[in-house]
């Protein structure tokens, strides 16, 4: 009996032209949100099978309908995501009290929502009242000249938005003749490197109070949906700005009322004592006193033993259940609460519990309770200042790390001075560690990295989704393992890290970072998650990944014809060759891995021979091909689609 003829490439026993077959395939593609290119596969398989023109026409119509459904679903998901982001923005802005904080949050959220290089906001000049708008806050800006721009009525895109109260957008500002170009504005925009700009008005009670911008450093045609999205954000922003201004006025009025009340009750002994304590605590804060000094001052005024607990995520919490219950009651009421043997007052800021002031050994009358509550307010202020200072220092460390890695030759002396203020010596030997922990919360991982950098005299930041640490030391492997262990303990999940070093001056940091990142990618591609490695630890792969090896060129020279053929035809020759080698040259085992018929494997390998030469199974040539396949997986991240073709 003659052997069966080789079948078509694809899923055996289920041709696309069978009843319901095409629809089922397209529904499965929709269900898993497959890329648009995969919708061509049923047509390709049907043509290979020799389907009739009528069958192909039906498949084409079904494909078009499926792609339309995919587009509608994608648009709905995008709109839902935008609405969710706007809702979160409104909630965030509603909880803010400080105007500068509100403005900063607005531009940061605008930049994130539209995915632009920069975002910025101008406000009306309320001092001169001449219709000018002045730059108030920016996000992603690097130019001092740009950050000091002033736009007159009708000048530039922003001046026109402020004058007409209409949104304007340009894909290329310098070639757009709709706007009144001025030397000062054009110089600032050129210095910032901006090309595409979108501006929408900030309106309050029918009056333009400023302009919100999103801009890119390359040409970009903003869509109508993006204009509408930024306009919606501007509406929320206007309300938040008005609320912040009202709160500032209310706060000033309350402070004035408190001062009047103090003068009216200055003859009361209890109030005098409270005022004395308040003055003492205020003086402590103004002189730069810390939490310990406030503890001592409250103990001196009220007597007894005072303890301050920082109840933030990384701080200590009261262990006594009675104290913890009293603290919850104080947080709810805003008052000092008896604990049994003493008193507890919660330190709150904006509804967020930051700490607690515990007093033991004395009883308090109502006036003394007010003193304890005032002390809790001061403690909250100090804890907020401490947190803000820590966040500011973390931003400084991250910005400095970016400068060291991106352009160390631009101002090396300035970089050294900035590092010195953070306790880092960039001329000393350092180890660069690039780590990731997919299961960890990004904020907690970043916080742990910043703490590690701060305590060791190094730098930390985030680049391309990975956490980057620059830590002093001459031994890369040892330093990286200690850092990864510390990060894993902080985020309670495994951490994968690549390391390189030591550095030899500012000019070598970027190369060490690139090598450490390649080591991390190699570990992930090899499935060695949770491990730490340098290029030395990766054996021959480390030799290829380190230095200036042209790995991509080698892969292209060895596998280029197969990769190009897969890209043009939508086939899986590279994946088939990899499965064949991984299966020890067994067609039967390879077809199980690929989930295709053995004849299909044979046909693909025959095509491989025609593309790269009939000697591809010779030992020396096979070794080169297996090495190239391994490197190809590393370069593309080792990810494959359903057909098995590697993709980045």
Automatic annotation (TrEMBL):
Cited SMART domains: GAF
Family: Belongs to the CdaR family.
Gene3D superfamilies: 3.30.450.40, PucR C-terminal helix-turn-helix domain
Protein's name in the database: DNA-binding PucR family transcriptional regulator
Signal peptide: none
Span of domain GAF: 98-251
Gene Ontology molecular function terms on file: DNA binding
Source organism of this protein record: Streptomonospora nanhaiensis
Keyword list, A-Z: DNA-binding
Entry-linked InterPro entries: CdaR-like_regulators, CdaR_GGDEF, GAF, GAF-like_dom_sf, PucR_C-HTH_dom, PucR_C-HTH_sf
Domain of life: Bacteria
């Amino acid at each position: 009996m003659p052997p069966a003829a080789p079948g078509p490439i694809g899923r055996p026993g289920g041709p696309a032209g069978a009843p319901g077959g095409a629809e089922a395939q397209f529904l499965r593609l929709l269900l898993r949100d497959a890329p648009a290119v995969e919708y061509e596969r049923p047509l390709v398989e049907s043509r290979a099978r020799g389907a009739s023109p009528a069958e192909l026409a039906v498949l084409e119509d079904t494909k078009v309908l499926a792609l339309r459904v995919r587009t509608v679903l994608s648009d709905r998901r995008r709109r839902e995501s935008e609405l969710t982001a706007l809702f979160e923005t409104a909630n965030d802005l509603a909880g803010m009290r400080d105007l500068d904080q509100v403005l900063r949050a607005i531009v940061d959220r605008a930049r994130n929502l539209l995915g632009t290089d920069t975002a910025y906001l101008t406000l009306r000049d309320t001092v001169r009242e001449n219709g000018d708008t002045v730059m108030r806050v920016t996000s992603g800006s690097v130019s001092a000249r740009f950050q000091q721009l002033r736009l007159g009525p009708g000048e530039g895109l922003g001046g026109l938005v402020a004058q007409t109260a209409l949104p304007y957008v340009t894909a290329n500002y310098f070639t757009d003749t709709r706007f009144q170009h001025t030397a000062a504005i054009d110089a600032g925009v050129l210095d910032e490197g901006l090309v595409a700009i979108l501006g929408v008005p900030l309106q309050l009670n029918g009056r333009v109070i400023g302009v919100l911008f999103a801009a890119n450093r390359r040409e970009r045609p903003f869509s109508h949906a993006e204009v509408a999205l930024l306009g919606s954000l501007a509406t929320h922003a206007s309300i938040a700005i008005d609320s912040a201004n009202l709160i500032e006025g209310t706060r000033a009025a309350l402070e004035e009322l408190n001062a009047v009340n103090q003068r009216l009750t200055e003859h009361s002994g209890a109030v005098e004592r409270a005022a004395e304590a308040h003055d003492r605590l205020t003086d402590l804060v103004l002189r730069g006193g810390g939490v310990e000094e406030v503890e001592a001052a409250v103990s001196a005024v009220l007597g007894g033993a005072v303890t301050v607990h920082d109840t933030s995520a990384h701080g200590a919490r009261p262990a006594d259940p009675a104290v913890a219950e009293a603290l919850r009651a104080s947080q709810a009421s805003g008052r000092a609460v008896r604990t049994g043997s003493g008193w507890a007052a919660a330190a709150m800021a904006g509804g967020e519990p930051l700490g607690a002031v515990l007093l033991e050994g004395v009883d308090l009358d109502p006036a003394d309770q007010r003193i304890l509550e005032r002390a809790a307010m001061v403690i909250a202020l100090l804890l907020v200042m401490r947190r803000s200072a820590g966040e500011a220092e973390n931003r400084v460390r991250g910005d400095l790390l970016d400068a060291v890695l991106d352009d160390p030759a631009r101002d090396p002396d300035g970089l050294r001075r900035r590092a010195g203020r953070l306790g880092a010596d960039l001329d000393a030997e350092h180890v660069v560690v690039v780590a990731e922990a997919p299961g960890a919360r990004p904020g907690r991982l970043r916080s742990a990295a910043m703490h590690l950098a701060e305590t060791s005299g190094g730098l930390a930041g985030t680049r391309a989704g990975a956490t980057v640490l620059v830590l002093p030391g001459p031994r890369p492997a040892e330093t990286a393992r200690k850092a990864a262990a510390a990060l894993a303990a902080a985020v309670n999940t495994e951490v994968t890290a690549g390391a390189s070093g030591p550095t030899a001056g500012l000019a070598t940091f970027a190369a060490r970072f690139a090598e450490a990142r390649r080591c991390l990618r190699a570990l992930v591609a090899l499935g060695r998650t949770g491990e730490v490695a340098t290029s030395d630890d990766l054996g021959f792969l480390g030799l290829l990944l380190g230095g200036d090896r042209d790995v991509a060129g080698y892969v292209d020279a060895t596998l280029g014809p197969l990769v190009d053929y897969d890209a043009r035809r939508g086939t899986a020759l590279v994946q088939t060759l990899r499965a064949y080698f991984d299966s020890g040259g067994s067609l039967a085992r390879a077809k199980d891995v690929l989930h295709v018929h053995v004849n299909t494997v044979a046909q693909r390998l025959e095509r491989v021979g025609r593309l790269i030469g009939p000697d591809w199974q010779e030992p020396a040539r096979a070794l080169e091909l297996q090495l190239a396949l391994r490197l190809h997986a590393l370069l593309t991240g080792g990810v494959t689609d359903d057909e098995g073709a590697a993709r980045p």
